[in-house]
Fold this sequence. Notes:
The structure holds two protein chains of two kinds.
Chain A lengths: L9 H28 L3 H17 L2 E2 L5 E2 L4 H8 L1 H19 L7 H25 L4 H27 L5 H37 L2 H6 L10 H6 L1
Antiparallel strand pairs in A: 1-2
Helix pairs in contact in A: 1-4, 1-5, 2-4, 3-4, 3-5, 3-6, 4-5, 5-6, 6-7
Chain B lengths: L3 H7 L8 H17 L4 H17 L4 H25 L4 E4 L6 E3 H27 L2 H10 L4 H30 L6 H31 L18 H21 L6
Antiparallel strand pairs in B: 1-2
Amino acid sequence: MHIMEGFLSLEWSIFWYLLSVPVxxxxxxxxxxxxxxxxxxxxxxxxxxxxxxxxxxxxxxxxTGSCSHPTGNGxxxxxxxxxxxxxxxxxxxxxQALLLAHGGISTLGANIFSMGIIGPLFAWLIYxxxxxxxxxxxxxxxxxxxxxxxxxxxxxxxxxxxxxPLPSFGAALSNFMLIFAVTxxxxxxxxxxxxxxxIEKIIQxxxxxxxRLNIFKIKSVEDPIIxxxx
Amino acid sequence: MNISIDYHAHNNELSExxxxxxxxxxxxxxxxxxxxQKPFIPFLIAFIMSSIIIFxxxxxxxxxxxxxxxxxxxxxxxxxxxxxxxxxxPLFATGxxxxxxxQDGLNLGLLVFSRMMGSFACLxxxxxxxxxxxxxxxxxxxxxxxIFIELALLMYRSIFIFIDESDRMYHSQQTRLGYNGxxxxxxxxxxxxxNLFIKSxxxxxxxxxxxxxxxxxxxxxxxxxxSSLTLKHxxxxxxxxxxxxxxxxxxxxxxxx
Lengths: 230, 257
């Protein structure tokens, strides 16, 4: 969920900006290096960002009957790695704020931190971890997207209760967590399932795309998606 | 799904106005909203900004009402939530299920509500009157890395193509018994998303070819048709923001509840 414009006071807005901006700058440096080496990757990154924007605007049927939107963070983290994904997520969040009025300018830093940094980072870590543990591709993708989504909401709850520690930080945190848990755990499951379907379909229809995606990865690490697509 | 904000940004009375002035006005006023400790000035800002949007930029008021409806609803919810659960000093007990309205919670809720309305109106002013290309060209002046802006501009263009495409796919899936039941919905949505990704990937490759064949050298240039701020703009900005800050100072002693 996006934190709405005006919800955080100036101090907290600046605080989250200061935490997010260095990561995004690092991501930009990585993208710069990649695009210098492979000029064709620039439009590919842009269309992937646009894809993430459209994906986040699609309605996702949830188990409890409520409807919400997939975040696309898990997918971004798995496909591009956390650094590049953070830049794409930042762009998506800017467009969401300016074109759809979801989120906002002052809360952009906080939203980047929860959705653009923590989400993809955890998705990527869990994806790698469960692959190393020998789990199947479908299960690791599911776990990555599930926990990526869930960690995003835990971070958002943390940010909100830090901003409004009333009556105390702990009480506020448990309040926010409780509200989020009811709505977000089904959504995280839904996003996990959807991400599995997306990745399996892409492998089935156009496996060569994943070989091209390799340019965004650290070279030495072997990616099981690429293995599966060969 | 449609992105009518973008349409209005390009088709309003202020869209040709100096973007530097509009951005500065929006952001500075937003900051004043956020540092305010009492709800008065943010409500005033919401009123002023809404008036500019409706009477100066001539955004249809029906559309603006829908636009501001989201923070209004969400803000009201926050207000209730904070009044009931976020406080220590009881104001009065409602007697229903032991719910109590707290004084400090109510004050905080009002402050957050007013800040949301005020800053949302500022955001609205910015997005409803300023086309995105102008915002990005100003970011370029602020020395935001070129690659970032270039990605943003390419993305901006692709978004509209993909929305059309996903709409078309969605409808054709629906006419072929897609989205029937929960399990089928997942399957359909997964198909749509993966197909969209594959299509967008090939669009990206084609865009690169098209750019290369038009002498693309790793840099997109656009013409900047706006002059920088005039003295009148600066004076207007300073006067407006200072009177708001003065207002903050004057209302800091007032007590609402």
